[in-house]
Design goal:
Number of domains of chain D: 3
Number of domains of chain B: 2
Shape of chain B: flat
Number of helices of chain D: 7
Radius of gyration of chain B: 21 Å
Number of strands of chain D: 12
Largest sheet of chain B: none
Bound molecules: heme-A, dinuclear copper ion, copper (II) ion
Strand order of the largest sheet of chain D: 3-2-1-5-8
Order of helices and strands of chain B: HHH
Largest sheet of chain D: 5 strands, mixed
Order of helices and strands of chain D: HHEEEEEEEEEEHHHEEHH
Strand content of chain D: 15-25%
Helix content of chain D: 25-40%
Strand content of chain B: under 5%
Oligomer: heterotetramer
Shape of chain D: elongated
Chains: A mainly alpha, B mainly alpha, C mainly alpha, D alpha+beta
Largest interface: A-D, 95 and 86 residues
CATH topology of the largest domain in chain D: Immunoglobulin-like
Radius of gyration of chain D: 30 Å
Structural class of chain D: alpha+beta
Number of strands of chain B: 0
CATH architecture of the largest domain in chain D: Sandwich
Structural class of chain B: mainly alpha
Chain lengths: 555, 114, 276, 320
């Protein structure tokens, strides 16, 4: 199985041909690409739902749809974005591609599970999306009982889909943990790993330990609908608030499944484009683990007004603040990395800077929510909507885009148009703030979320927000356009366009089937002294000569 | 890796049959004991005894049948952390639902008692 | 770390991205333990539901557990433990390359699985017959027209928690046997203030116990089934002599899974059957 | 554009927050402001440093590396400890105020609230039911709330207060309004189709005007024609759950065209549905049970007076 014909020109993209060679591939790089295509399609679908939401909200009354349709649209927007796009986003697409490369390994520990994970994703996604066509779903992505157990829509079906998606996520996490533990090469100690791997590792811990609880939650919800167990249904003697504990036990840690890998990506980008060793490596690494651990202790902050007891509210509020400390540590370390660097504002770095600003806003507004007295007022208003779009979009999606541009040459072997890349990133930044900053204002002024009709007084803010969302759509179509264009017409990518030193840049772009033609050893991923710029290929080459893909550099 | 390997390719620990036999005997006795103890009314102690015995039985299974005693520490860490999370979950859910239980409306269950 | 890679050639079971068997084995093992952790957390949800309702409404649990048969439950515990024992021994046999012994032990383990499910079936059927089910299906119709002891005799016979008065008529429990709700409402309904199927001391919402009972034992039963299929699969392969000292990973991993199934039952048994 | 930095002035709505119309609002807002300025500070810090570095150290493509120190334990400790101390303060002030928000004062004026898809019903101590919340100014008022179906959430932005309304249990929310006037009430927990229309008004009466209002409002007969009153009762006292108006089947016979027909009784015999029979059916429903129905209708003895019953009869007559 390791004996695929390898000629000097062959790479993982052209080593075998035909649809089946992709659909049944065990190569982590191809699986990464499969995931990338799949999640981007979901993102597109979710984005179109968002456009429907924003268009409906142009006027306070009915605009383009009925109340029921609106409820279905925001449910699907939320569910698609969360379960289909952002949770698998960085780990399963970018992570799958780069993790073994960064480790100098040939593949992940369990290639078959990896493929199975993607197929489960496809199955789950198919079922979840089919539930739209069959009888829609109108519960919101949170599936709160007893609404979700009594509504007439196909909740059971979408819950089945999400259950399967959860399984897919578990397999990815499990695979990454084992790979990082067992497949590190000689010389790569834990503290020689690129920080993205720490991010993915802590993400994987959450994926493995939290996702099963989502599974049982959804199972109980389905049983509640099918058999009428009554555990969550007051009409049968059950307790609806208990459901919320179940749901958030998973779904709070899940938000850190989204942000931790994004923080890993940002650590890579900031160091590489500042041409400087990352500042405070160990603090950044440990803060990832700390976030993963604390993330399990704070779920009740989504339930401050639910009727949860005051005692538990108090504990959860206090614990919630603990998560902000490791996040603060990261932000300050990134800033320190930039200090006195030689900062190159290439597209990935522009995204990294966007991230820094937007995530800071998102995170700081989290403090309003973690504080009991203010959350009572802000809960379930657009302030929450703005908060989570700032962290999920301004944080994760922006980091994802940064990473996508950063590894695009490695994945495809092509360079995208740098100028368009920068322009699009700026448009996106502006559009994003117009869309969501306004929502903070609406929210604190008292506009509840999931509102189809709203009061006249919020009209102008809503319209501004909708305009912002159209600006974002323009930026995304630009991005999609020049990336696709680069596939056909892009300049051939050098092995190391950015002068980075983690192991994936020590092999050609795109990498060969088995990743490396030699046995790799750990290096300090943030030590760039071994590379110098070569004008002729617009990329970096080793100071000692060669193109960097053949020799093996020891520590 | 704390795995013992007796000869070149041997991986994992081989557990002697008498040890396995001893463990299953202990498990059987404990099962009988836990049923037996239930015959006595010890108030709230009953549940602690029952769960205590279950924990001992579980530990026997994990340590000997599942080889954890000889296994890499990381595998034990995985197990312990999952158990800690279970306790965390039970702890908070219990603390909270017990605290608000007095607010519940007596007899409210329209779908069963119309 | 260069030993088996390249120089000695790959053994058949060694995948190309591993350096050697030991690395592959310990990776598989860590993977399996992680998977077991997810299983534990899957069941965690049910244990939470159990803990919440039991601590807030002990009356439901005490009343309802009289309908479970401790003798059958106890026997089933032993059956499962024994099959765990044969499984553990089987792993040893695989490690030492004792092919015949391995086949025999795996067959015994499988038999244990069948035994367990058989007994479980008997128990389920009795519940079904008496309408001791979940949610609105909880409808123990037989309560109303007789004193109960005779008809339920076969399933409530051995309830070990007989109060001082001797074997009580369990469907007409003295109110003192069933304590009031620990917190909040839904406690014992005083005799006379009849609920629809209220007789004696039947508390509100007994169906919650049966919902939890069926979910816990049902999910566990599904795991038993999966475990049996896996054992069947390695049994077939071991007949062909697939496992020996150099390669026994599947036996080891399936063993771990089977022990976990056992482990969960070790807790389910006292929690469901031995309530006091 | 600088407007977004202006936070609350006393009472009036600010750029960020609605008017402060309850005693707790001022306290919540001062915490809000504290976090706001803290956030502005840290945001400014990050932006100023980030932007300054990006511009000052900006370099062309193709740079080699810079060698500087890559860690500094003192710095790390400083930027770990300062945020830690700050969040401890945040937690504490938020928690203190929250405890006051969640503990209703003793002897507060109690109003019962029911949430249902998709309206709020407020029941006053004398039994009068209204669709809006009326309360006296400068008085502690506690709402004892429950839901008929799914979870709703009582949200009064001007009072900075919110509480979920959960079926099967009572939850409480209290406020002390400092201003008279009308304030918006929303349902903040998603509850289905008309979630966004599940609004009401909190109408705060000036000193001494609340009691007269309640007395006046409770006296429906002076204000509405009997048929309308009957219809209100039909909706509010649960008749709706068992008796349809369109001839549809229900737990009880439909009211459509009921008046004046002959009903067969389950004990044999039959009866003409006239004023007397309806009166008897409401006060003593089990006296004569209509054939095909079970005797499940509750008695309304003591809940309606003669005038009320007449109104209901008029209403039943009007359904044809
Ligand atoms: C990527 C996802 C993500 C991330 C990273 C976060 C991060 C945080 N979130 Fe957020 N959150 C969501 C996604 C996310 N959240 C979602 C999806 C919801 C709503 C779900 C729904 O209801 O549909 C939500 C809702 C939510 C609530 C519930 C609100 C409610 O419904 O009433 C709360 C309450 O505490 C909260 C708090 C926080 C906090 C304290 C952080 C912290 O981790 C933030 C830490 C970061 C910083 C603090 C900034 C950087 C630090 C500095 C610049 C230094 C200065 C710092 C200090 C002085 C402390 N979030
Ligand atoms: C990752 C998560 C994520 C992302 C990215 C987004 C993106 C957007 N969301 Fe979000 N949203 C949620 C998660 C997310 N959302 C969740 C969880 C909820 C709560 C649901 C609930 O209440 O249950 C929610 C709810 C929500 C609401 C509140 C609805 C309500 O409460 O009534 C609104 C309203 O404006 C909104 C708007 C938007 C907009 C305008 C975008 C825009 O940014 C979208 C822009 C995207 C596009 C226009 C797509 C373009 C894509 C391509 C062209 C493909 C090619 C791309 C590449 C090659 C890169 N969303
Ligand atoms: Cu009621 Cu939303
Ligand atoms: Cu959260």
């Amino acid at each position: 199985m390791s004996t695929a014909a390898t000629t000097p020109d062959s790479n993982y993209l052209n080593v075998t041909k035909g649809a089946l060679s992709w659909l049944l591939t065990l190569d982590h790089k191809r699986i990464g690409i499969l995931y990338l295509v799949s999640i981007l399609s979901s993102f597109f679908l979710g984005g179109m739902m968002a456009m429907l939401i924003r268009t409906e909200l142009l006027t306070p009354g009915d605009t383009i749809m009925t109340a029921d349709q609106y409820n279905q649209v925001f449910t699907l927007h939320g569910a698609i974005m969360i379960f289909l796009f952002i949770i698998p986003g960085i780990p399963a697409a970018l992570g799958n591609f780069v993790l073994p490369l960064m480790l100098g390994a040939k593949d992940v520990a369990f290639p078959r599970l990896n493929l199975m994970s993607w197929w489960l994703w496809i199955t789950g996604a198919f079922i979840a999306v089919a539930s739209i066509l069959i009888n829609a779903v109108d519960t919101g992505w949170t599936f709160y009982t007893p609404y979700s157990t009594t509504t007439g829509t196909s909740v059971t079906l979408i819950v089945t889909g999400v259950f399967i998606l959860g399984f897919s996520s578990i397999l990815t996490g499990l695979n990454f943990i084992v790979t990082i533990h067992k497949l590190r090469p000689k010389g790569m100690t834990w503290f020689k790993m690129p920080l993205l791997l720490w991010g993915l590792y802590s993400t994987a811990i959450i994926q493995v330990l939290a996702t099963p609880v989502l599974g049982i939650t959804l199972l109980l919800l389905a049983m509640e609908r099918v058999m009428g167990i009554g555990i969550f249904d007051a009409a049968l003697g059950g307790d609806p608030v208990l459901f919320q504990h179940f749901f958030w036990f998973y779904s709070h840690p899940a938000v850190y499944i989204m942000i931790l890998p994004a923080m890993g990506v940002i650590s890579e980008l900031i160091s590489v484009f500042s041409r400087k060793h990352i500042f405070g490596y160990k603090f950044i690494a440990f803060s990832s683990i700390a976030i993963a651990v604390f993330s399990f202790l704070v779920w009740g902050h989504h339930m401050f007004t639910s009727g949860q007891s005051e005692l538990v509210n108090m504990i959860f509020s206090a614990l919630t603040f603990s998560v902000s400390i490791p996040s603060a540590i990261k932000v300050f370390n990134w800033l320190a990395t930039m200090y006195k660097g030689r900062i190159q504002l290439d597209t990935p770095m522009l995204y990294a800077l966007s991230f820094l600003f937007l995530f800071t806003i998102g995170g700081l507004t989290g403090l309003f929510l973690a504080t009991l007295a203010t959350d009572i007022h802000l809960h379930d208003t657009y302030f929450i909507v703005a908060h989570f779009h700032y962290v999920m979009f301004g944080g994760t999606v922006i980091a994802f885009l940064g990473g996508l541009h950063y590894w695009w040459p490695k994945m495809t072997g092509k360079m995208y148009n740098e100028k368009l890349g920068r322009i699009a990133s700026v448009i996106l930044f502006v559009g994003f703030n117009v869309t969501f900053f306004t929502q903070f204002v609406m929210g604190s002024r008292g506009m509840p979320r999931r509102y189809f009709h709203y009061q006249e007084q919020f009209t102008s803010l809503n319209q501004l927000s909708s305009v912002g969302s159209y600006i974002m759509a323009v930026a995304f179509f630009m991005i999609a356009g020049y990336l696709l264009h680069s596939l056909a017409k892009g300049r051939k990518a050098p092995a190391n366009p950015w002068g980075a030193n983690s192991l994936e840049w020590h092999t050609p772009s795109p990498p060969p089937f088995d990743n490396f033609d030699r046995e790799m050893r750990g290096v300090d991923p943030y030590d760039y002294t071994g590379w110098k710029y070569d004008e002729s290929i617009e990329g970096y080459v080793p100071v000692g000569g060669g193109d960097g893909t053949r020799d093996s550099r020891a520590v | 890796m704390a795995t013992e390997h007796n000869h070149h390719d041997q991986v994992g620990h081989v557990v002697p049959v008498p040890l396995l036999g001893g463990v299953i005997a202990a498990l059987m006795i404990l099962t009988w004991l836990t049923v037996f103890v239930t015959k006595f009314d010890l108030g709230s102690l009953n549940i602690f005894i029952a769960l205590g015995i279950a924990v001992i039985k579980g530990a026997l299974v994990v340590l000997f049948f599942m080889h954890l005693r000889w296994d890499a520490p990381i595998n034990g860490i995985v197990l312990i952390s999952s158990l800690l999370l279970v306790f965390l979950f039970i702890g908070f859910a219990l603390m909270d639902s017990a605290a608000y239980a007095p607010d519940q409306i007596p007899g409210y269950a329209p779908r069963i008692n119309p | 770390m260069t030993d088996s890679h390249g120089s000695e050639g790959h053994p058949a079971h060694l995948q190309h991205h591993f350096d050697n068997s030991r690395q592959q084995f310990s990776a598989s093992k860590l993977g399996m333990w992680l998977f077991l952790a997810t299983e534990i957390l899957l069941f965690a949800g049910l244990f939470v539901a159990y803990a919440v309702y039991r601590s807030n409404h002990p009356e439901i649990f005490i009343y309802a557990h009289y309908f479970l048969d401790t003798k059958l439950g106890g026997i089933n515990t032993m059956v499962l433990l024994l099959s765990s024992f044969t499984m553990a021994w089987g792993v040893r046999a695989a490690q030492l390359g004792q092919r015949k012994l391995l086949v025999a032990l795996l067959s015994l383990t499988l038999l244990g699985g069948f035994g367990f499910l058989g007994i479980k079936y008997v128990e389920y059927e009795a519940k079904w017959k008496h309408g001791l089910l979940w949610g609105t299906n909880y409808n123990p119709e037989s309560h109303d027209d007789h004193t109960g002891a005779d008809e339920h005799a076969e399933e409530v016979e051995e309830a070990p928690t007989a109060p001082e008065t001797g074997a009580p008529d369990r469907l007409n429990l003295e109110p003192t046997v069933v304590p009031p709700s620990a917190t909040g409402p839904a406690g014992t309904v005083p005799p006379g203030e009849g609920l629809p199927h209220g007789q004696g001391a039947e508390p509100d919402n007994v169906h919650i116990f049966f919902g939890i009972y069926f979910l816990m034992t049902g999910l566990h039963g599904i795991h038993v089934l999966v475990g049996m299929s896996l054992i069947f699969w390695i049994l077939l392969k071991s007949i062909g002599g697939a496992y020996g000292p150099k390669y026994f990973t599947p036996v080891d991993l399936v063993g771990l899974y089977w022990h976990l199934v056992d482990l969960i039952w070790i807790f389910l048994f006292p929690l469901l059957y031995l309530i006091h | 554009m600088i407007g977004f930095l202006s936070t609350t002035g006393a009472g009036e709505p600010s750029f960020w927050l609605p008017s402060q119309s309850s005693t707790i609002a001022q306290r919540v807002d001062s915490i809000w402001e504290f976090i706001f300025w803290l956030s502005v500070f840290f945001f400014a810090l990050v932006v100023v440093l980030g932007a300054r570095f990006a511009l000052k150290y900006r370099a062309a493509r193709g740079q080699g590396t810079v060698a500087t120190t890559d860690h500094n334990t003192v710095l790390e400790v400083v930027w770990t400890v300062i945020p830690t101390l700050l969040v401890v303060v945040l937690f504490w002030i938020g928690f203190r105020t929250y405890i006051d928000m969640s503990t209703p004062p003793e002897n507060a004026y109690e109003i019962q609230v029911t949430g249902q898809k998709w309206q709020w019903l407020f029941t006053y101590p004398n039994g009068y039911v209204d669709e809006n919340l009326h309360a006296p100014v400068n008085t502690d008022v506690v709402l004892v709330m429950t839901s008929e179906d799914v979870i709703h959430s009582m949200f009064i932005p001007a009072f900075r207060t919110k509480q979920d309304v959960v079926p099967g249990r009572y939850s409480k929310l209290w406020f002390n309004a400092t201003e008279t006037g009308e304030f918006d009430i929303y349902c903040a927990e998603y509850c289905g189709t008309s979630h966004s229309d599940m609004g009401a008004k909190a109408i705060i009466h000036p000193e001494g005007e609340y009691e007269p209002w309640l007395k006046d409002a409770s006296n429906l007969h002076g204000r509405f024609p009997p048929v309308e009153i009957g219809e209100k009762y039909y909706k509010r006292f649960g008749c709706k759950q068992c008796h349809s108006l369109d001839g549809g089947a229900g737990i009880g016979p439909t009211f459509k065209g009921l008046y004046g027909t002959m009903e067969r009784l389950s004990g044999g015999g039959s009866v003409l549905v006239d004023e007397n029979y309806i009166r008897e059916s409401i006060l003593n429903p089990q006296a004569k049970v209509t054939e095909g129905y079970s005797p499940v209708m509750p008695t309304y003895q003591g809940r309606f007076n003669d005038q009320d019953i007449t109104a209901i009869i008029e209403f039943i007559k009007s359904v044809e």
